[in-house]
């Protein structure tokens, strides 16, 4: 049994990112599902892993790590040659900027806690949720598309191999499709995501491959 344990939720974008990274680096791991809709992330056992009560949490190298991008950067720094972050400082800054545009600008306002609050304020919760998701995912991906409009973009978000930016993009495109976001305004981002999704590390991390008998959001 692997000493590396990922505490995650199948549809969590942040967990999806880390699953891709672990697969890319061929790090064997065991997955432990944390059912967000059942409130397992607020129980004492999980709060001991992550005081924020979020997923993912990754137990690796004798440490318990939290925050998906911090985890991915740790993996990049401790597994040389991963390619998740470029060696050149300017290129590395660009990959971080692309990653943060999704993980820090789109994701926080579309996560479970925020969306549940939005639904509670509406007389038509499902319609409010769908409209909210389409608005903020659509706007965010539109800005991301403009960030890709540089010569540094290649087959992937930066150059011709996947980086941390692609690990952030693919789960967000998954969410966009789920909420019927119009992707015609971001053809480059959508095309990059499709290229990534054909790679085994990405395909194996897809939520449909990781779903267990837990709640659906």
From TrEMBL:
Stored CDD domains: GST_C_Zeta, GST_N_Zeta
InterPro entries: Glutathione-S-Trfase_C-like (IPR010987), Glutathione-S-Trfase_C_sf (IPR036282), Glutathione_S-Trfase (IPR040079), Glutathione_S-Trfase_N (IPR004045), GST_C (IPR004046), GST_Zeta (IPR005955), GST_Zeta_C (IPR034330), GST_Zeta_N (IPR034333)
First-level EC class: isomerase
EC number assigned by the record: 5.2.1.2
Limits of the GST C-terminal domain: 88-214
Residues annotated as domain GST N-terminal: 2-83
A Pfam family this chain is assigned to: GST_C_3
Keywords associated with the record: Isomerase
Listed GO MF terms: maleylacetoacetate isomerase activity
Transmembrane segments: none
Protein family according to the UniProt entry: Belongs to the GST superfamily. Zeta family.
PANTHER family, sorted: MALEYLACETOACETATE ISOMERASE
Name recorded for this polypeptide: Maleylacetoacetate isomerase
Gene: maiA
């Amino acid at each position: 049994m692997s000493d590396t344990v990922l505490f995650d939720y199948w549809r969590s974008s942040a967990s999806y990112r880390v699953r891709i990274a672990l697969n890319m680096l061929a790090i064997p791991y065991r997955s432990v599902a944390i059912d967000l809709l059942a409130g397992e992330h607020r129980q004492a056992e999980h709060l001991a892993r992550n005081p924020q009560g979020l997923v993912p949490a990754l137990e690796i190298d004798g440490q318990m790590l939290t925050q998906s991008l911090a985890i991915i950067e740790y993996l990049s720094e401790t597994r040389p040659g991963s390619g998740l972050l470029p060696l050149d400082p300017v290129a590395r800054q660009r990959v971080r900027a692309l990653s943060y545009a999704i993980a820090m600008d789109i994701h926080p306002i579309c996560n479970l806690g925020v969306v549940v609050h939005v639904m509670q304020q509406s007389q038509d919760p499902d319609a409010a949720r769908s409209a909210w998701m389409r608005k903020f995912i659509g706007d965010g991906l539109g800005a991301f598309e403009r960030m890709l409009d540089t010569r540094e973009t290649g087959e992937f978000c930066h150059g011709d191999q996947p980086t941390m930016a692609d690990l952030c993009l693919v789960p967000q495109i998954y969410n966009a499709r789920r909420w019927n976001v119009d992707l015609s305004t971001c053809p480059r981002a959508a095309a990059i995501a499709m290229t990534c999704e054909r790679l085994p590390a990405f395909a194996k991390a897809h939520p449909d491959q990781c779903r267990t008998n837990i709640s659906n959001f």
